[in-house]
Design goal:
Elements (H helix, E strand, L loop, with lengths): L57 H4 L14 E5 H7 L5 E2 L1 H6 L9 E5 L9 E4 L1 E2 L1 H9 L3 E4 L20
Length: about 170
């Protein structure tokens, strides 16, 4: 093997193209932009990935159907009663901070939902945004308490009072 048989490979130390440095560089005068045209002037931006050459873009040609509530859907952390029984001592208060500390919940969520899978053998005070019917029965059946975290208040829609009726 000698230097002439090596592949080109990736050029790590390749210099960038310096345009507009005179006719001797090969990239002088128009700086490889051509004469006039849409992208010849400074500040002209090349089209993005969805640009289809002046015809109607694909996202406008396709029909719009359906509905998504992704902008205002809530993402809840789901915890089962059996998991609470395994990780918490009797008489403990279980809230979002305690669930994160015991690693039953990882990441960020809009709230906590307690579901009734598994058995509960201890008295616990559970603070959450939602309880399933079976989970509530199991927690309260062992003498524990279910405390709901209050949600957002609904906005007041009509602030205008009706006009009083004219006497006459």
């Amino acid at each position: 093997m000698d230097l002439s048989s090596l592949a080109d490979g990736v050029h790590i130390r390749k210099l960038k193209k310096r345009v507009g440095r005179g006719p001797g560089s090969g990239h002088g005068k128009t700086a490889s932009r051509g004469h006039k045209g849409q992208y010849a002037s400074a500040g002209a931006q090349l089209p993005g990935t969805v640009f289809t050459g002046g015809q109607t873009p694909i996202h406008r040609r396709l029909p719009k159907r359906g509905f998504t509530n992704g902008t205002f859907a809530k993402d809840f952390a789901v915890v089962n009663v059996g998991d609470l029984d395994a990780r918490f001592e009797a008489g403990a208060t279980v809230d979002a901070a305690a669930l994160k500390k015991t690693r039953l919940v990882n990441g960020t969520y809009d709230g906590v939902r307690i579901l009734g899978e598994g058995d509960l053998t201890k008295k616990l005070t559970v603070v959450a945004h939602h309880f399933s019917k079976s989970a509530k029965e199991k927690i309260e059946g062992k003498g524990g308490a279910c405390q709901l975290v209050p949600g957002r208040k609904p906005p007041v829609r009509n602030k205008m009072k009706p006009k009083p009726a004219k006497a006459g």
